[in-house]
Write a structure and sequence with these properties.
The protein is an alpha/beta fold. It has 20 helices and 22 strands. The strands form 5 sheets. Strands 3-2-1-4-5-6 form a 6-stranded parallel β-sheet, sandwiched between helices. Strands 13-12-11-14-15-16 form a 6-stranded parallel β-sheet, sandwiched between helices. A 4-stranded antiparallel β-sheet has the order 7-10-8-9. The longest helix is centred in the N-terminal third of the chain and has 38 residues, at 83-120.
Length: 633
């Protein structure tokens, strides 16, 4: 190959030098300036030029004079009538102007470049005991809001977010949708959570807990599994276990994620959990409000505490030992959790009480307090005999198949589930499900579910309850909610016009549409994103809460039921909650609250739901009011 010309070689070396960055260019310019000053100082001495008043002009004086002319052009006119010296120093000053101007430009550019790097959110997070959120989705705003509430009793809370999104955009959205973060600092960093280098920026090694959000796309589960792998297999990982909470959509991916994360990760199967809540709520009006009350940090929450003075007491005794807390169950010394255990279960050393209370320091027993039970107000009724049910599902999304399977656990044999959707593709799934369910006969038809005449022809008056699903897989979020809202408005008009009475539970995707939908007077609304966000926030604070909610959501365990108060106590007379609790205990149930039906549509009164009331205070329940219990049936 022919040798390159000298000019090309010099240009190549200069390009390589420039590519090293601002700091290298400043250093190079500094060296050039030093060499330039020394050379011109020597040249000044060699040609015998010096200021008129300087008789002893040596090398150091020459260097000083040249340096001052390079740095300060104003010194060019501060000499006597020595024109040769003036012209020489004028040359030095002109070259100095170029050098200083270039230096100022480089410094300014370097500062702007550094500020731009900081704006991009690529600097290392020097924090400890922080909550790290990996990824970005619509759930993040509810999670941040809940964590802010959870941090209120701390001096300073830290939330770090690492997402493949511009740092400034993240901060602006959080400021707009969350608002004041109070004593919690929210730090945003830009990066890919599955990239080990980017993950290092967020400092996962010193976190209190880690929340991994779904990616709002069809590859969400695989991305979450990759993120878990990036955390737990990192060569620089910490010795103590991580506390990771992640959402999964497809149950098929659950085992893989658990195999990777082991006991360090708590996985929330969002579609399955929402489906279970939808089914339970469709059968019991107001249940969604109870779940939100238990899951959010705004009111009473679920806490665990060791209580040595309860050792040797039965679970029945423990229920009445708390005036201001509603006891749910026991976490045994081996970390097993049981909600509503047998009443004769003995509390042992190392066990923990699980209770609903205002704060962790209010879960305190009072074994000396005299319990007031009004025996004459306790009633006993036989459970009602189940009858075949007619259920209508309007709409379709991925959760529908889980809902149908879950319904099969609850309904008596011979029940019918009729599915009506705008889209034909659900038919294959319905046909496949018919072979797997035992108690249900499935019917399917394609109809316009927002058309009034179509809805009128569905014989709605024969339905025990109606489940409305959003077309989440077919429309954007707002359009899917709008379709559901139109159907709800038609159903409300039918009840007013014809006097039909049927329970309606409706799914909503955006919490902001929940308030709009209140005018439809549906019995319950399930805002799926909000419920999953609340659950993830709770589990990120205490991983054992996942065991509690798994038990509550499981058809085989103890669940939350809302039953008529008249099945427990005399209605229409003053009563205290100790009496309701005693009546429930005799049925092997645990009473945790009540619902006042006259307030069921009043959001300011919590839709009539009162969880963990003070047990000694008296109140009156009417014939339509309900008692909230933990029960196996």
């Amino acid at each position: 190959m022919k040798s390159a010309p000298l000019s090309v070689k010099l240009k190549y070396k200069f390009d390589n030098f420039i590519s090293k960055g601002t700091l290298a260019m400043i250093s190079g310019l500094g060296i050039f300036s030093l060499v330039f000053v020394v050379l011109f100082a020597l040249l000044l001495l060699a040609i015998g030029l010096h200021p008129d008043h300087e008789n002893d002009f040596n090398i150091f004086e020459s260097i000083w004079v040249n340096l001052t002319h390079v740095l300060d052009p104003g010194t060019v006119g501060n000499h006597e009538e020595n024109w040769p010296f003036r012209l020489f120093m004028m040359t030095v000053t002109v070259i100095g102007l170029v050098v200083i101007s270039t230096l100022i430009g480089l410094v300014s550019s370097g500062i702007l470049e550094k500020m731009d790097d900081l704006r991009k959110g690529r600097s290392f997070v020097i924090e400890q005991d922080h909550v790290l959120i990996l990824g970005w989705s619509s759930k993040i705003f509810t999670i941040i809001s809940e964590l802010i509430l959870a941090n209120e009793n701390q001096k300073r809370g830290i939330i770090v977010i690492l997402a493949d999104k511009d740092k400034v955009l993240m901060e602006d959205e959080i400021k707009d949708k969350v608002g004041d973060t109070r004593n919690t600092d929210v730090i945003c960093r830009t990066g890919n959570p599955i990239d080990v280098h980017d993950l290092y920026i967020a400092n996962p090694f010193e976190t209190r807990s880690i929340i991994i959000l779904d990616k709002d796309n069809e590859n969400s589960d695989s991305q979450i599994i990759k993120t878990i792998v990036a955390i737990v297999t990192n060569p620089e990982r910490r010795l103590e276990p991580y506390h990771i909470t992640a959402e999964m959509e497809d149950k098929k991916n659950f085992d893989v994620a658990k195999m990777v994360g082991k006991d360090e990760v708590e996985l929330i199967l969002s579609d399955e959990i929402i489906s279970r809540i939808m089914v339970q709520t469709s059968r019991q009006s107001g249940l969604s409000v109870v779940y939100i009350e238990l899951m959010d940090f705004g009111g009473d929450e679920i806490y665990f505490t060791e209580e040595p003075q309860l050792v040797g007491k039965t679970f029945r005794d423990i229920l009445f030992a708390y005036e201001d807390s509603a006891i749910m169950g026991i976490q045994y010394a081996d970390n097993r959790v049981e909600v509503n255990p047998p009443m004769n279960t003995v509390f042992k050393e190392g066990d923990k009480v699980i209770g609903i209370t205002e704060d962790d320091d209010t879960l305190v027993p009072n074994l000396e307090k005299t319990v007031s039970i009004i025996e004459s107000d306790i009633v006993y009724t036989e459970p009602e005999e189940q009858h075949k049910e007619m259920i209508l599902i309007v709409g379709w999304n991925n959760r529908a198949q889980y809902i149908i399977r879950e319904l099969d656990y609850y309904v008596p044999p011979g029940s019918t589930v009729r599915v009506v959707s705008k889209f034909e593709d659900a038919r294959k799934i319905i046909n496949r499900l018919q072979k797997k369910v035992e108690n249900i006969t499935l019917e399917f038809e394609v109809q316009d579910t927002t058309d009034r005449e179509t809805l009128e022809e569905m014989n709605l008056q024969n339905m025990d309850y109606i489940i409305l699903l959003c077309y989440q897989n077919y429309y954007p979020i707002q359009e899917a909610d709008a379709q559901t809202l139109i159907t709800l408005l038609h159903l409300r008009n039918f009840t007013e016009k014809n006097g039909d009475k049927y329970k309606i539970v409706s799914e909503m995707l955006d919490i902001r549409n929940r308030q709009l939908a209140d005018i439809t007077s549906a019995d319950d609304f399930i805002v799926s994103d909000k419920l999953i966000s609340l659950l993830m926030s709770q589990v990120s604070e205490n991983k054992f809460l996942m065991r509690v909610f798994e038990d509550l959501f499981d058809a085989d365990g103890s669940e939350i039921y809302i039953k008529p108060a008249r099945e427990y106590i005399q209605v229409g007379v003053p009563i205290n909650f100790y009496t309701i609790l005693e009546s429930a205990v005799r049925k092997n149930e645990v009473a945790i609250g009540y619902r006042v039906i006259k307030d069921a549509k009043d959001a300011n009164k919590g839709y009539g739901v009162y969880v963990n009331p003070k047990k000694s205070e008296e109140f009156v329940l009417d014939a339509d009011d309900m008692v909230i219990v933990l029960s196996e049936d």
